[in-house]
Amino acid sequence: MKPYKKRSVSGRIVVVLGSRLEDRGLRLIEVTSRALCEKEIHELIITDEVNAKPGGGVDRVAYLGFMEVQVGGVVYVGDKVVLNNRCVGVILGFDETHMPNHMNIVIGAKELKSGVELKINVEDPILMMSEA
C-alpha cells in the first residue's frame, strides 16, 4: 500500500563503486517498502532489467555506491532516486543479502552505469522521493 503523502529520504554518498556483474543473483524481497533510519548505511545497485520486481531476481547490475541516510523515512518501490539533482532511476526492490550490516537498494535505470561511470563523488547528495 502506497501512502498519499510522505517526506523524502535524503543522504550523502559515502563510497563510490565502479564494478559490474552479469550474474549477481540478487533476490528481491516481497515487500515494497523499507524504513531507512538516520545514520544507516545502505548500498545502491543499478540494473537495466525491466522486469525486475519484488519477489523476483536481478542478475545484471552496476554498483553505484553506498549512502548514509541523513533524513530518514520510508522508501517504496517506484520512488525516484535523484543524485546531484538528476534522476538516476526508480527503486525496483530491496535485497537483504548483507543484513544486518546493510541493505541493497536496487534501482532501475535505462543505462547500466556504475558510480564511477556516472562520475559521482563522496558527499554527493541523494534523494529518494515519491512521484506525487
In total, the number of strands is: 12
Q: First CA to last CA: what distance?
A: 14 Å
Largest sheet: 7 strands, mixed, barrel
Task: State the domain count.
Answer: 1
Form type: globular
Polypeptide structure, described:
This protein is mainly β and 132 residues long. The chain has one domain (9-129). Helices cover 0% and strands 48% of the residues. It is built from no helices and twelve strands. It has strands spanning 9-16, 20-21, 26-27, 33-36, 41-47, 57-58, 61-71, 73-76, 80-83, 86-95, 104-108, 125-129.
List keywords for this structure.
about 130 residues, mainly beta, two-stranded antiparallel sheet, 12 strands
Short summary of the structure?
The chain has strands at residues 9-16, 20-21, 26-27, 33-36, 41-47, 57-58, 61-71, 73-76, 80-83, 86-95, 104-108, 125-129.
Q: Which helices and strands occur, and which strands form pairs?
A:
Blueprint: E1 9-16, E2 20-21, E3 26-27, E4 33-36, E5 41-47, E6 57-58, E7 61-71, E8 73-76, E9 80-83, E10 86-95, E11 104-108, E12 125-129
Parallel strand pairs: 5-11
Antiparallel strand pairs: 1-7, 1-12, 2-7, 3-6, 4-8, 5-7, 9-10, 9-12, 10-11
